[in-house]
Design brief:
There is one protein chain. By secondary structure, this protein is an alpha+beta fold. The chain is built from eleven helices and seven strands. The strands form two sheets. A four-stranded antiparallel β-sheet has the order 5-6-4-7, with helices on one face. A three-stranded antiparallel β-sheet has the order 1-3-2. Helix 9 packs across helix 11 (about 260-285).
Length: about 300
């Protein structure tokens, strides 16, 4: 964060939080694009991006280097108008962002699909099976035996997208349906705890909650935070939440304990985001420069976050 002679307790908290999280530039830029740039039309002038990143102690040089790498890796696309460069999320990144939307901004809506997916990959060549196994594990699938992967709450359309993308739709056996046994839900939960290491996930959620609950110990109420403070808090909140979610297999609320910390973390994010998003947007509109100039408008879809922002 930029030094300010009028540093107050909120600035001190945010500075300590930034130091504790210590976000990588590339990862933070992706968070910023997904949370902030995307709902404002999806494009930002490089100079404007540099200014935003300076608030997180990321230098202009590091921002430019990170943007170059993200573009090369296919996450961003660029356009030039005269001497000015503008950047947007690539189609690939938008697809990933839309899929991640429900996890980040609508955690409780993950319970819509109760079907289990079981995938058998023994017919694949070793190299293809290895690559698919890495993808499935990142998506939260468990594998209790070789060539077998399962998930109780994964969207079928996403599974189909993966198989079609890698041209594996005719080389695997996929079963999609409800689990009729055991009928005792508690026994099913016990089995789930054997298949997935939820203890590690809960520890990550606990760490996340501890970091951000400190905000309620400040004497300054949230509605008195400055627009810039709200913006910085919002980005750090979503960035750190994204990191915790990466390890959550998202099994659905029915298969986790009543006191599952994923619910508490989601509730905390909802509460904080809803409290600060309007002030944060004031700061964003003042500083976000797009192809169409400054003061861009928010897309209506933005207000569907967390069940409906006001």
């Amino acid at each position: 964060m930029k030094n300010n002679q009028n540093t107050n307790e909120v600035d001190e908290y945010l500075e300590a939080l930034l130091k504790e999280i210590s976000p990588k530039a590339k990862s933070l830029i992706i968070t910023f694009f997904g949370d902030t740039v995307f709902p404002y039309g999806g494009t930002i002038w490089l100079g404007s991006l540099v200014k935003f990143m300076e608030e997180f102690d990321i230098s202009e040089k590091l921002t430019r280097t990170s943007i170059f790498r993200l573009t090369k890796e296919g996450w961003l696309s660029s356009k030039k108008f005269g001497r000015e460069s503008y950047y947007s999320l690539s189609d690939y990144a938008i697809d990933r962002f839309v899929k991640a939307h429900y996890s980040v901004y609508a955690y409780d809506e993950q319970d819509e699909d109760h079907n289990w997916i079981v995938l058998f990959t023994n017919a694949l060549k070793p190299a293809k099976e290895f690559e698919l196994s890495k993808i499935l594990k990142k998506e939260g699938f468990a594998s209790q035996s070789k060539f077998t992967y399962l998930h109780p709450n994964y969207k079928m359309e996403y599974m189909q997208d993966i198989l079609i993308k890698y041209e594996l739709q005719n080389d695997v056996l996929l079963i999609n349906g409800t689990a009729d046994m055991p009928m005792n839900k508690e026994m099913l939960k016990d089995m789930v705890n054997v298949f997935w290491d939820l203890k590690d996930v809960e520890e990550r959620y606990q760490s996340f909650i501890t970091k951000f609950r400190k905000i309620f110990t400040l004497k300054t109420p949230i509605d008195e935070f400055s627009t810039k403070q709200c913006f910085i808090l919002r980005i750090l909140l979503i960035h750190e939440y994204r990191r915790a979610l990466l390890f959550d297999p998202k099994l659905g609320n029915e298969l986790v304990s009543v006191d599952w910390l994923g619910k508490a973390a989601a509730s905390l994010v909802d509460s904080l985001y809803s409290s600060i998003h309007n002030q944060a947007n004031e700061y964003i509109r003042e500083n976000l420069l797009t192809v169409g100039g400054n003061n861009p408008k928010l897309q209506k879809s933005y207000f569907s976050r967390f069940g409906g922002l006001k």
